[in-house]
Amino acid sequence: MDFAKKILSKYGWKEGDGLGKNNTGIAAPLKASLKFDNAGLGVDRAKEFNDHWWERCFNEAANNVEVQVQTDGHVKTGRKEGEDAVEISTKGYSARKLNKANKEVGGTVYENFMQTTLLTQNGGEVETVQAIKVEDIAVSKVNVLTDEELFKACGGRTAHKGARHGLKLSGKLARLEQQEQEMLEKLQGKQTPAVEAELKETPKKKKKQ
């Protein structure tokens, strides 16, 4: 930055003025954007945190199982096949829907790209009439509940069965707190006589020779 400033000052430029003959150019320098990964330009870095593909695949796999209760009481399980079968994919679109839509519109998909417009010789753009819409091939979205919403949906019940009866299992935390307090008092030299007597009465284990 200092090197560029010296070069511009040599030709009469002053700090705060714009670039160009009439000082009508930009006045603030362009900042370099450092890149240390292999991700392409325009990549959404928050996608891995917002795309809950695991929950979606789990729900679709669960819905793919068919359970039938026969007249004799036996339960028969099966799974859907064909177009109704589950499609496990970590991408944000369905490859099955994409291939089907590509055949219907006459081939507007080229590897990882979809044709949406055509460029003219004059630099203009003409929209493709039979372009594939992103919403038509998108997978179903997953509504992830927060802890408060999940607790409310479960009626205040948790996996701990004793919690519904008022048991919080705070005994271990209380013992840890007491041990920390005793250790703190011991380090500070302010240990109570009762704690000292309890420590003296504790028999020490003999080491085996």
From TrEMBL:
<dbReference type="InterPro" id="IPR000467">
    <property type="entry name" value="G_patch_dom"/>
</dbReference>
<dbReference type="GO" id="GO:0003676">
    <property type="term" value="F:nucleic acid binding"/>
</dbReference>
<dbReference type="InterPro" id="IPR050656">
    <property type="entry name" value="PINX1"/>
</dbReference>
<feature type="region of interest" description="Disordered">
    <location>
        <begin position="183"/>
        <end position="209"/>
    </location>
</feature>
<dbReference type="Pfam" id="PF01585">
    <property type="entry name" value="G-patch"/>
</dbReference>
<feature type="domain" description="G-patch">
    <location>
        <begin position="1"/>
        <end position="46"/>
    </location>
</feature>
<protein>
    <recommendedName>
        <fullName>G patch domain-containing protein 4</fullName>
    </recommendedName>
</protein>
<dbReference type="GO" id="GO:0005730">
    <property type="term" value="C:nucleolus"/>
</dbReference>
